[in-house]
Structure formats: structure tokens, C-alpha cells
Amino acid sequence: MGLPPLDEELQGKILEYVTEPTACVSCKPWKHFLYDNLKLDSCIRFKQCLNDKDPLAYCYSAVRPLGEDFEESVGFNFQFFRDGSYRLAWTRTYDAWSSQGEQHYGKWRLKMGEVCCETLEPQEEASETQMRYAPAGYKFAVPVEDILSAEGTSSCKMELYLKNPKPTFL
Question: Residue 56 burial (CB < 10 Å; 0-12/13-18/19+)?
Fold first, then answer.
């Protein structure tokens, strides 16, 4: 049985409990239950990595066949900053025939073992030599473990959100 979805205030109170030495020692099974269900170990490791490297970079790329002698390539390059902002540049190409690309500026937060991202209005306009910015309101999530392992996954849920540019809600 997992935990129900938690709002930020309730999650904050639970996090206070698991970090309070006298409270977490009093009921270790409850502490372990919370750590497992809130995926706190990976979130703590993410924050530690971000503390060591600001920004924390994550690159994901994949190639998949779309037919005989025809393939799609995607690449996502993230930078996560300590202040809770992120930048992303992504490209998608179809062999030599066409390509798409976009850059994102937004905010991130950790939730249940995922880095939840939301695009914001960019701080500056894209120049003529830069990719356009995504509009505000796109929401997607990247598993913390993918970022920490820096290996990506063969079918990345994040791709679906970014390749279908419609605001979505987590």
C-alpha cells in the first residue's frame, strides 16, 4: 500500500518528522515506510548532487527506427539549478529530412522520486540564432533515478510530454 497524493504542506510536515532525530528513532518502521513511499533516498541524493554541482546536468538521447532506412533521433539536455529553476534544450530529427527543437526555462520541485518541471515565461527573448522558447504552462516529470544514473531509459515518459506541445497537468 502506497501513500495517497500529498499536498506540499502535508509533505513538508512529514519531511520534518523523518528528519527530526528523536521522532524518527521512536518509530523506525514508520520512518522506513515514509522513506520508501516518498522516495526520500533518491530525493536526498539528488539534492546532494545539486549541492556538489550547480548546475546539475542531465543529458538523454535515443534513436528509434520509424521504418526501413528511416529513424528518429531525440536529445534532451537539462541543467537543474539550486534556486529551483531549470533550463532544457531538446531536438528531434528525422534522418536528414527535418528537425524540431525548443528550449525551456522553468521551475522544478521534487515529488515522489521525480523532478517535476513546469515551463515559465523566459527571462529573455530567444535571439535569431537560438531555438524558440516553449510557452509557459508545460508540465512533465523526470525520474530522479534516471538523472542520477545519467543513462536515461529506453522509453522515457518525459518524451511524450515534450514532443506533444500541449500544457498537461501532473
Answer: buried
